[in-house]
Amino acid sequence: MGDFKVLSFMFLILVVMLLGVCHVPVAAEQKKKTYIVHMVKNQMPASFDDHNIWYDSSLKSVSESAAMLYTYDNAIHGFATRLTAQEAESLRNQPGILFVLPEMKYELHTTRTPSFLRLEENANLFPVTDSESDVIVGVLDTGVWPESKSFDDTGMGPVPASWKGACETGTNFTLKNCNRKLIGARYFSAGYEAAFGPIDVSKESKSPRDDDGHGTHTSTTAAGADVPGASLFGYASGLARGMANRARVAVYKVCWIGGCFSSDILAAIDKAIDDNVNILSLSLGGGISDYYRDNVAIGAFSATTKGILVSCSAGNAGPNAFSLSNVAPWITTVGAGTLDRDFPAFASLGNGKNFSGVSLFKGDPLPEKLLPFVYAGNASNATNGNLCMTGTLIPEMVKGKIVLCDRGLNARVQKGAVVKAAGGAGMVLANTAANGEELVADAHLLPATAVGQESGDAIRDYILSDPNPTVTILFEGTKLGIEPSPVVAAFSSRGPNLITPGILKPDLIAPGVNIIAGWTGAVGPTGLAEDPRRVEFNIISGTSMSCPHVSGLAALLKGAHQDWSPAAIRSALMTTAYTVYKNGQTILDIATGKASTPYDHGAGHVDPVSALNPGLVYDLTTEDYLNFLCALNYTSSEIYGVARGNYSCDSSKTYSINDFNYPSFSVTLETQVFGGSNGTSTSGNSVVKHTRTLTNVAGSSGGTYKVSISSPSPSVKISVEPDTLTFTKDNEKQSYTVTFSASSMPSNTNEFGRIEWSDGKHVVGSPIAISWV
C-alpha cells in the first residue's frame, strides 16, 4: 500500500510538471494584442442590414470572447479588437476582410514666433472677416488644459454651424471646460487600456484633460488666443498668440503615459472627420511602412479626401538621413528651425575663459564667487557616470560643486535633478558629437547652462588639466535678433524619403526650437515628478512645436481662401517658403555648420505672408492620389486599404510618380554602364521627364510667368518646356515638362537645384533633389 502511495504521488508530480511544461507555449500562443481590421464595406452579405453587426459576426467566427474596441466608418471601414496571432490569421481568411494589421505605438515629437514670421506687422493683409473664426483646428495629442488663458473666448461669436463635435466629460473635466474657443474635447483610450489595463486616475485623467502639457502647448501654438504679458519665469516675455488666433480648437486626446496607440489615433481621426474639422494637427510619429499598412496615413488620406488638411511632425531623429516619419504625399510633413531669440547663460571658468550656453533657470542665484568644478565621470563609480543618470553621482564628491555632465540617454532636465539630489550647486551640460552645436534651453531645477560640443570639449579639458578647477554661471535673460536665423535644428528628421524616394520630404520647416506656448497646471515646466513649480506658459522644442505652427498657418489660409483644397494650401506654403537669408546665403544646418539642403529643409522655411497670395498653386485631387498609388504598383486590395473604395488602375495607361503634381521635385537616377566594343565600360547619360500643372489663384488678371532654373552642377542639365506660362483667367491651368539629363555619378551621390516661376510680383519656387542609386 505504501509503495502504491509513493507511485501515485510520483505520478501526480509528473502530471503537474507536464502540465506546467505544456502551459508555457499555450499561454504564449494565446497572448492577445490589438489588431485593426480593415473591411471591404460593399462586400457585406445580404443577410446583414448593419455593418457593425456584420463586423461583430466576422469577429465572433474566430473568437466568441473577443469584443470590438472601436468601429470605424470615416477613416477606414472596420474595427479594432484584441486577438491572438492564431485568431488574427484565421480572421484574415474570412470573406470581406481586407487587412488585419497589428497596432503600432507612436511617440510624441517633442512669443516670438508671430513677429518672426511677420504676422504682426502684416496683420492687415489677412482679411478681417468671420471666415477665420469658422475654421476649426483639430489637435490629436495629450489633451488640453482648458483653464489656459489661451482658450479665452472673449469676443468670439457663436460656434460655427458646421461643427458636429462634442465636449466629452470625464475625470476633472466638465461641459463648462469647453467654450466658444475650445469648442470640442474628446478622449480615446480603449486601445491604450487594452494594452496597459485601466487608466490609473490618480496618475492621469481619464478625460480630455492634459496632465502632460504637450497637447496644450501644441494646440495653443496652432490657434491660441492673444495673451498679453506671457512669459516663463520672465523669459520670452510679451504677447503670446497662436498662429490662427481667431480659429476654433477641437482637442482629441490620444496619448497617455505609456504612449499613443494607432487604434486610438485612428478612432480620433474617424471622429474628427465626422465632427467637421478643417485642419488636423498631429505632432506624433512611429515606425514607417507602406501606406496601406500605415493606419495614420490611411486615416489622413480619408481626411484629405474630405477637404481636411493634415499636418504632421517630421520627427526628432535628425540629423541622420532617412529618419523621417509621416511621409505620405497627402500629409504636410514639417521639420524644425530656430527663431532669432535666445536665452544666453555663460559658463565662466577660473582660467578667465567664458563659454556661451543657454538656460531658462530661474531661482536662487549662485554665490558671487567661483565654485569648485567637477566632471561627472570623475565623481561616479558607475558605467557612463559622465551622463549623470539617476543614482550615479557620489554625493561626497559633488556636494557644493558645479558638475559637468555629458548629454545623452536620459533627459537634459533629469541630469540637473540628479546633480541637485546629490548636493551639487549647479550643472554645465555639454553636447557630444551626436548633438554638435545645437543648444536647446531648459527650465532646470538648479543653476545650469547647456553648451555646444566644442565648448564642452574645451571645458572638459580645463577640468581634467587644472588641479583646482572653478566655475560660475552667468544668466543673461532673453536676447533677440540672433543671427543667422533660422537654422535647421539638428534634431529635425531628414530625407530622403525611405518609402517613396520620388516624393521629397520634409515639405518645409517652421519654428520648433525654444517655443513658448500654453502649459498644463498638472506638472512643472520640466515634467519631472520632483518639479513643484507650476507655470501658465512653457518653452520647449521639437518638430512637435513646428507642426502646429504650420497647422495654424494653414488655418489662416483656409480662412482667407475657403475654396482652396488641402493640396492648394500646402502648395502655397511650400512654393513661397524661403531658402536663403537676406544676404543670399543658404539657410544653415546647425548639425554641420554648412548650408542645408532640401533633404533638411524641404521647400524652405515657411513665410505665411507670401503664402497668402502665392500667385499659382500645384493642386491635387483624390484621383491624382489614386493614380499615385497606381504608380507605386499597388494592387486593388492595397489601394482599397488606403482609399476605402474600389479603384482599378487602367491597364492601358502608364502611371508615373514623375507626373504626380507635387510642388517639389525628387529625381532618382540610375548609374548606367554600357559595354564597349573592346570590352571596356563607359558611363551613359540618364534622362528623366517630370510634368507639372499650375493653377492661377491670383485672380482674373492672371499674368505671364517666366521660368528660372538653378542647376546643381555642370553634370546635370535641366530644361523646362514651355519656359513661359500665360494665365488670363482665375483658376486657369497650364502644364509644363521638366527634363533632367545627367551623366553617371557614383551611387548615393546627391545634388540639389531649384525651379522658380515669376511674373515680377509672385515667385513660385520648387526645390529639386537629385540622387543616383
Automatic annotation (TrEMBL):
**Which residues are in the Inhibitor I9 domain?**
34-109
Q: What range(s) does the Peptidase S8/S53 domain occupy? A: 133-581
Recorded hits in InterPro entries, A to Z, give: PA_domain (IPR003137), Peptidase_S8/S53_dom (IPR000209), Peptidase_S8/S53_dom_sf (IPR036852), Peptidase_S8_Ser-AS (IPR023828), Peptidase_S8_subtilisin-rel (IPR015500), Peptidases_S8_3 (IPR034197), S8pro/Inhibitor_I9 (IPR010259), S8pro/Inhibitor_I9_sf (IPR037045)
GO molecular function per UniProt = serine-type endopeptidase activity
Identify the catalytic residues: 141 (charge relay system), 214 (charge relay system), 544 (charge relay system)
UniProt keyword DNA-binding present? no
Give the residue ranges for region: Disordered: 202-223
**A GO biological-process term:** system development
From the UniProt annotation, give the residues forming the signal peptide. Answer: 1-28
The record's section on PROSITE patterns has: SUBTILASE, SUBTILASE_SER
Q: Which residues form the Subtilisin-like protease fibronectin type-III domain?
A: 659-770
Compartments annotated for it: namely: Secreted
Record's GO cellular component terms: extracellular region
Which terms are listed as keywords in the entry?
Glycoprotein, Hydrolase, Protease, Secreted, Serine protease, Signal
- List, for all copies, the residue spans of the domain called PA: 387-459
Indicate, by first and last residue, each region the UniProt record lists as having compositional bias (Basic and acidic residues): 202-215
- Describe the family membership recorded for this protein in Swiss-Prot or TrEMBL: Belongs to the peptidase S8 family.
Checking PANTHER family in the record gives: PROPROTEIN CONVERTASE SUBTILISIN/KEXIN
Q: Under what name is this protein listed?
A: Subtilisin-like protease SBT1.7
Naturally occurring in which organism (per UniProt): Cinchona calisaya
Q: Which lineage ranks, top first, belong to the organism behind this chain?
A: Eukaryota, Viridiplantae, Streptophyta, Embryophyta, Tracheophyta
